[in-house]
C-alpha cells in the first residue's frame, strides 16, 4: 500500500535548531510528500530560512499562541497525508525515519498511532532517552528499555514521545484532535489515551529514530526546575480527570498528590542547597498547587 506522508514541525523562536531538523527530513529516502512548518511568529521562521528552503515548497502556517496542541491541530488542518508524522524543531531525524513509519503502518493496519525512538543529543555519543512508553489514566508515565514490558498492564497503555510520533490520519475520526487545554505537557498523551479509548492501536517503531537537542522553549528553560509548573500540573490533573473513572479516579488523585509532594520536596531541597532562592522555591510550589486546582476545575483553555 502506498501512503501519502505529511510531516508537521511546530516551531517557536528556535530558528537555529529548526534548520537542522529540516535538513534531516529533506535527506530522507523516500522524502515525505509535504512538510508543514507551524511557526509561532515571524522570527520563528525568518527570511533567511525562507530563502534557504524556497525551492522545497514548504507549507507555512502560523500559531501565534504558545500552545503546542493548537499548533499541532493547525498542522493537521493543512495536512493532506494518510500518515502525519510529528517532529519537534529541536529533533534531528535519522536515516529511514519516514520509511520506518510507513513500513510499520503497512504491517499493522489496526494501528492509529505510532511512536519512534529518541536519543538524547546532549551526550556524546547520543544516549537512549526513550524506547517504549506506557501511560496510565492517572497520568503516570513509564519509560522502559525492555520491549516485553511494552504492553497493557495494570491499566497502562502503550504511549509515545511528543518529539517523535505519527498518526494514521485516515483511521482517526475527524473529530479527534489535540485538546487545546494542553498547551504544555500531556498533549500527545491525552490524544493517545483517547485513541485507546476508541479502540485504536498504538505501536512502537524502534527504527524511527531522532536525536533530541532539548532546546529551551516557551515553557521550559535549561535548568531542571525552570519549567512552567502551573501548566505542568494543570495538564497532569486535567488528563487524570478526563481519563480516570471509578476506582481509577481515586488512584489518579493519589498519583497527582504524590507527585505534588515530591515536587515540593525537590524544590525545598534545591533551596536548602542554594541552587535556587527561597522566593523561587515558594513560587514553584505555589504554581504547582494552582495548576492542580486549575486542572481539577477546567472546562476551557489553560
Task: Please give a quick description of this structure.
It contains eight helices and twelve strands. It has 302 residues and is an alpha/beta fold. The strands form two sheets. Strands 1, 2, 3, 4, 5, 6, 7, 11 and 12 form a nine-stranded mixed beta sheet that branches. Strands 9-8-10 form a three-stranded antiparallel beta sheet.
List the helices and strands and how they pair.
Blueprint lengths: L4 E7 L3 H12 L7 E6 L7 H6 L6 E4 L5 H11 L4 E6 L2 E3 L3 H11 L3 E10 L6 E4 L1 E4 L5 E4 L12 E3 L4 E5 L18 H11 L3 E12 L16 H15 L3 H26 L5 H20 L5
Parallel strand pairs: 1-2, 1-4, 2-3, 6-12
Antiparallel strand pairs: 4-11, 5-12, 6-7, 6-11, 8-9, 8-10
Helix pairs in contact: 6-7, 6-8, 7-8
Uncertain regions spanning at least 5 consecutive residues = none
Structural class by secondary-structure content: alpha/beta
How far do the termini sit from each other?
41 Å
| CATH-derived topology of the largest domain | Spore Coat Polysaccharide Biosynthesis Protein SpsA, Chain A
> Which class of the largest domain in CATH terms?
Alpha Beta
Number of strands: 12
Over the alpha carbons, how many angstroms does the gyration radius reach? 19 Å
CATH-derived architecture of the largest domain: Alpha-Beta Complex
CATH superfamily of the largest domain: Spore Coat Polysaccharide Biosynthesis Protein SpsA, Chain A
Query: Please, how many helices?
Result: 8
Amount of helix? 25-40%
Amino acid at each position: 500500500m502506498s501512503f501519502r506522508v505529511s510531516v508537521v514541525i511546530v516551531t517557536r523562536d528556535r530558528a537555529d535548531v529548526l534548520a537542522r531538523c529540516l535538513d534531516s527530513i529533506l535527506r530522507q529516502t523516500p522524502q515525505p510528500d509535504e512538510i508543514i512548518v507551524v511557526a509561532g511568529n515571524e522570527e520563528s521562521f525568518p527570511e533567511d530560512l525562507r530563502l534557504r528552503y524556497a525551492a522545497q515548497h514548504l507549507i507555512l502556517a502560523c500559531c501565534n499562541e504558545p500552545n503546542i496542541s493548537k499548533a499541532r491541530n493547525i498542522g493537521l488542518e493543512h495536512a493532506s497525508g494518510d500518515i502525519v508524522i510529528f517532529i519537534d524543531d529541536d529533533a534531528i531525524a535519522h536515516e529511514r525515519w519516514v520509511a520506518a513509519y510507513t513500513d510499520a503502518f503497512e504491517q499493522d493496519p489496526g494501528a492509529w498511532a505510532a511512536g519512534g525512538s529518541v536519543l538524547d543529543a546532549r551526550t556524546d555519543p547520543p544516549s537512549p532517552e526513550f524506547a517504549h512508553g506506557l501511560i496510565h489514566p492517572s497520568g503516570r508515565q513509564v519509560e522502559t528499555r525492555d520491549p516485553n514490558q511494552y504492553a497493557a498492564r495494570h491499566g497502562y497503555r502503550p504511549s509515545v514521545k511528543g518529539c517523535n510520533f505519527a498518526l494514521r490520519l485516515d483511521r482517526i475520526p475527524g473529530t479527534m484532535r489535540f485538546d487545546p487545554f494542553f498547551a504544555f505537557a500531556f498533549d500527545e498523551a491525552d490524544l493517545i489515551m483517547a485513541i485507546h479509548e476508541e479502540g485504536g492501536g498504538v505501536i512502537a517503531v524502534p527504527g524511527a529514530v531522532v536525536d533530541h537537542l532539548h532546546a529551551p522553549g516557551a515553557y521550559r528553560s535549561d535548568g531542571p526546575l525552570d519549567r512552567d509548573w502551573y501548566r505542568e500540573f494543570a495538564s497532569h490533573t486535567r488528563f487524570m480527570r478526563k481519563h480516570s473513572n471509578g476506582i481509577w479516579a481515586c488512584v489518579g488523585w493519589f498519583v497527582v498528590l504524590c507527585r505534588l509532594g515530591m515536587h515540593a520536596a525537590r524544590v525545598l531541597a534545591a533551596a536548602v542547597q542554594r541552587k535556587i532562592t527561597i522566593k523561587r522555591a515558594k513560587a514553584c510550589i505555589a504554581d504547582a498547587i494552582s495548576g492542580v486546582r486549575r486542572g481539577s476545575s477546567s472546562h476551557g483553555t489553560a
